[in-house]
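JOB MANIFEST
job_type = single_chain_structure
chain_count = 1
residues = 570
[input]
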Amino acid sequence: MKKSILLLSVLAVVILLVVACGPAAAPPKPSPTQAPSPSPSLAPKPSPSPTPAPVVPTIKTGGILRYTQIAGPAGYDLHSLTSAWAGGPCVPIYNNLIQLDVDKGEPALDNLIGDLAKEWKLGADGTEITFILNQGVKWHDGKPFTADDVVYSLQKMADPKRAARIATTLAAMESVARVDDYTVKVKLKYPSPSFMLALANGYAVIQPKHSENLDPKTTGFLIGTGPFKFKQYVPESMFELERNPNYFKKDRYGRQLPYLDGIQIYIMKSITSGSDAFIAKQLDMLNPIQILYSQSDVDKMTKGAPDARFIKQKSDTPFLIYLNKEFKPFQDPKVIQALGLIYSSEDQLLARVGSLDFGQPNRGIFARTWANPESEVMKIMGWAGKTYDQRVSEAKKLMAESNYKDGFKVRMVYANVPGAHSEPSFIQYGDALKKYLNITYELKPYPSNAEAYKARSAGEWEMFNEILYASLPDPDAYMAYFKTGGSSNFMKYSNPEVDRLFEQQTREFDTNKRRELTRQIERLILQDKPVMPGAFLQGNLYYYPYVMDFKPTPMVYGPDNKFEYVWMNK
């Protein structure tokens, strides 16, 4: 009885609690069984994709590159003007401090890379440059390359007596000093926009200090650090270089440079004989700075070597007729103006190359980048809006008013070497002088550049016909020719205003302002006429398709002429 009452009491309490709490919730339906989601922190990290290995282009090492030039070297010191025809054979033997990047081409400060210098630092005011040199470099005779060699070379290159070819382009240099074995500091007189480009000039090679007492007329002088070493020279036959097995450079993939085993440069007496040898496949390319610019030569190559390739090239080094300003008649303004009126750059070019299809008349003196517009040049020369007959009539009148109305005689001096083409140009101009102005002429050919230069230095000339060797594609290169006392100013030309403007432009970093200064200089030179404008040439540089990675630059004897990256795909 008591147990029943107790059970009823417990049941009542439970019922009351349930009523007080509301109806009971339905039990949840079981969810389908799922795999637990992994915690993000515990998720396995994906394995990184392997970086694809760089595709290393196939390069065939070995082989001898064969090309031609039309005269053998007159000497071996590239700093000197007396070493005519030495550029091609000797440039691969040497290195510069810095050089132009062949992959970028245009000569600009941003396109310079190290050569013997691996890096450089420019001081805050632009007048101090510190060069850090590559270590472990050896000269071809086994001696170590050090800062002493750079100091020696830069001092030599800045001395007009020892380095007439390039000294003017380094005129901004005040001093050079050794900091330690592999550091050199250069001080400039003023910030110069062209100084670094001048160091990349193909002629501005670094030479060993221990070559100071060697004879630059002998091949024993040829001690470099470059990709190729001197092997042998058979005079007027063949100049041969061999691979430098200890060259300090490697390509971007770690392969030893250069790729070629050697270079053979065959001395042939004319462009025609060189072209014939190329067509006969006895050569791999024509001279790397030789272009074919006459239509007949191009037609011959198209027919004879249809599998050859060519690169279109434009020259910024014109052929000019130079006037000796110490010759009294050439100091008479009326005579000079008359000479200019009857001179025709088109006629002279026609006589020189035999075709106007590839050669382009030079309407000025400076390279196109720095030159005046054609219309301005025509006006200064007295050609604008006049027929040739009208120009002749005006020239005759000027001569009659001059101090030389009865005329005079001139010696036309030139090096009668293959490919120069000076004689037909002189004959055409000389015949016009004789016919219209009563100026007679005597042709004075010399069998070599050295002999022609000797006569020129002795003052035994009135007119001289030669290319303007602007080895640096910069206005500073022209200072040597037209500034008073310049190392190449054999005309003895002097104009104080030209000198002042040259000094102004060499300090000007703004390209547009600098160009206007050079145009002012050119206008003055065209008025004074120490030279008669000649011809910029353009044409085709030929090679066979198996010659790989030859990349010409506008720098005369630039890094492309070292052939350190060229290889033969055969």
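[summary]
The mean pLDDT is 86.
The radius of gyration is 36 Å.
exit_status = 0
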